[in-house]
Amino acid sequence: MYLISLFIIGAFVGSFLNVCIHRMPREESIVFPGSHCPHCNHRLGVIDLIPIIGYFLIRGTCGYCQAAVSFRYPLVETISGGVFVASALAFPPLTSSFAFAFSLIFLSLLIVIFFVDLEHQVIPSVASYLGVAVGLLFNLSGGLNLFLSALIGAGLGFFILYLIGSVGKMLFKKDAMGEGDLYLGAMLGAAFGWRGLWLALFLAYLLAAIVALVLLGFGKVKMGDYVPFGPALAAGGVITLFFGQKILVWYLGMFL
After folding, report:
1. Is the pLDDT at 131 greater than 70, yes or no?
2. pLDDT exceeds 90 at position 222
3. Which of 62, 74, 87, 111 pairs with 239 at a CA distance of 20 to 30 A?
4. Where is the Prepilin peptidase A24 N-terminal domain (predicted)?
5. For 183, how many CA atoms within 13 A lie in the half-sphere containing its CB?
């Protein structure tokens, strides 16, 4: 029941994340007005606001104007519920309360960044700024050394992606890295420190390369097309959060 309750709470948080995903790139308030259909602006009813189940009860359409409702809504709510459960298993609240709280905030921000960049090819700066602040605060609780590592990591994350983007622009004569990616790199560095940052970036580029090859293979993109990098950075951050230490131990174990 404990994990089920966490999943339900996470799904409701996912409903709020959906609001952020829809409104942030449009520079709208995430608080006012209340939840409404983006097509007809009708205020949503109780059934419409039930996470996950509500989408299927209304059969994926607005009950007021019959406009289609994106499947992204129940997907984000399900992912958010899963994030709450996974965080509780990885960082038990009773023994690692601060790490648990950090993981929930950090992962929620990554969910927003992932879907906004995927849909609009832009990363909301406010989400990255908040992520940097949360990462620095979390590492500050672990002592001066961790905080300094996080501070260096934030600067390094920004600089590495800026450097890659600058080189890419010189080679391809067009922007190769969005400004939002730089702040997301800083967010990852603030969360994992300068050591963990390298793993997060390596995983991000590995995932981006795999996805790009698959899209090219299926003809979904062509050489030279822009593919948002934010989702890959976010995915690299998620993997590093949950499995980073195990990956590093495994990797170092091959050489020691």
Report:
1. yes
2. no
3. 74
4. 8-91
5. 18
75 with 128, same domain: the answer is no
Neighbouring C-beta atoms of residue 242, cutoff 10 Å: 17
The helix (H) or strand (E) run that includes residue 243 is helix 230-253
Picking from 56, 90, 124, the residue at the C-terminal end of a domain is: 90
Residue 78 vs residues 1, 91, 230, 237: alpha-carbon distances, Å: 17, 20, 21, 19
Query: What is the maximum span of the chain, computed from C-alpha positions, in angstroms?
Result: 64
Residue 132, pLDDT > 70, answer: yes
Residue 256 is predicted with a pLDDT of: 60
What range does the domain containing 255 cover? 96-256
Residues 236, 212 share a domain: yes
Lookup: tokens for 162: 């800026």
**Residue 250 scores a pLDDT above 90:** no
- Answering whether pTM is above 0.90, one says yes
Same domain, 105 and 130: yes
In sign, the C-alpha dihedral spanning 188, 189, 191, 192 is positive
Are residue 111 and residue 204 in the same domain, yes or no? yes
- Counting the structural domains of the chain, the total is 2
pLDDT of residue 118: 94
Distance from the first to the final alpha carbon of the chain: 43
Q: Which residues pair with 68 in a beta bridge?
A: 61
What mean pLDDT is predicted for residues 63-75?
A: 91
pLDDT band at 255 (very low <50, low <70, confident <90, very high): low
Strand (E) positions, the chain? none
Backbone phi, psi, residue 68, to 5°: -65, 140
Q: Is 194 exposed, middle or buried (0-12, 13-18, 19+ CB in 10 A)?
A: middle
247 and 167 belong to one structural domain: yes
